[in-house]
Specification:
Belongs to the thioesterase family. GO terms for molecular function: hydrolase activity. It comes from Streptomyces capoamus. With 265 residues, the chain is of the alpha/beta class. The chain has a single domain, classed as Alpha/Beta hydrolase fold, catalytic domain (Rossmann fold), CATH 3.40.50.1820. The protein is 29% helix and 14% strand. It contains 7 helices and 8 strands; from the N terminus they run E-E-E-H-E-H-E-H-H-E-H-E-H-H-E. A 6-stranded parallel sheet has the order 3-2-4-5-6-7. Strand 4, helix 2 and strand 5 form a beta-alpha-beta unit. The protein is globular.
Length: 265
């Protein structure tokens, strides 16, 4: 069991790491707007014993509440690239949900441009293609309107609505994240050589199926689009279906097996 952090890793960027005895790959997961590394808590006991889970904690929330969130998605991706440099010592897969999907794509682009260790695959879920405009502006809405939007679009776990004080804190983070995502429209993409797999929820009104097809312009090589049950929050609502989809896309790495004892940090 590996319970110690490599000295080259930035501890602040990864929270709740699940280590395994002999990892073949590292699964680096970037959360949706308003969320933190804890979004992937339900994934911990579902992964094969050869995969290390490395959930990303973005600045401006949770354990990093005092760290300033950059003002643009491009700048945040640059910080993420530096912060995760020590995490690329194993073969790895990048997974991003919504805002995290845009960041995963941008990070892969930077790594390809700069000759860094590129992912085995980049997987984006419930995210529009980066060269497509946002479907609307919601980050400037009042609290009541924003809460109704979140509930209607399944954009936050339902149980969070039972804790109004905590929810107010989340709204502050969420507004800043949404501003980044809504203002980000990339230039026409240089297609990625890295395999690109896109997941969408069949009932997602935020990123409908028609929008997901535009991701094909971002891929120079292997590309897949998979539709799964659920709305915008399907990666948290139904992690089993997401991991099944990853298993079909990367069968050599996501084979089910007996899960040994793991450690988290």
């Amino acid at each position: 069991m590996n319970s110690g952090a490599s000295p080259t890793r930035s501890a602040s960027w990864i929270l709740g790491r699940v280590t395994v005895t002999r990892p073949r790959i590292r699964l680096i997961c970037i959360p949706q707007a308003g969320a933190g590394a804890g979004s992937f808590r339900a994934w911990r006991d579902r992964l094969p014993s050869t995969i290390e889970l490395a959930p990303v904690e973005l600045p401006g929330r949770g354990t990093r509440a005092d760290d300033a969130l950059p003002k643009t998605l491009e700048e945040l991706a640059e910080h993420l690239s530096s912060g995760l440099a020590g995490e690329l010592d194993l073969p790895y897969v990048l997974f991003g949900h919504s805002l995290g999907g845009l960041l995963a794509h941008r990070l892969t682009t930077l790594l390809e441009e700069r000759g860094g260790p590129v992912p085995l695959a980049t997987v984006v879920a419930a995210a529009r293609a980066p060269h497509r405009p946002s479907g609307g502006v919601i980050h400037t809405a009042g609290d009541g309107e924003l809460l109704r939007w979140l509930a209607r679009h399944d954009a936050l776990p339902r149980e969070m609505f039972e804790y109004p004080d905590f929810l107010r804190q989340v709204l502050s983070v969420l507004r800043r994240d949404l501003a980044l995502a809504e203002s980000y429209v990339a230039a026409p993409p240089v297609p990625l050589r890295t395999p690109l797999h896109v997941l969408g929820g069949v009932e997602d009104p935020v990123v409908p199926t028609a929008e997901l097809h535009h991701w094909s312009a971002c891929a120079a090589g292997e590309f897949s689009l998979t539709l799964l049950p659920g709305s915008h929050g399907f990666p948290q609502r139904d992690p089993a279906s997401v991991l099944d989809a990853l298993g079909r896309a990367l069968p050599e790495y996501f084979r089910p097996d007996e899960h040994p004892t793991t450690s988290t940090r």
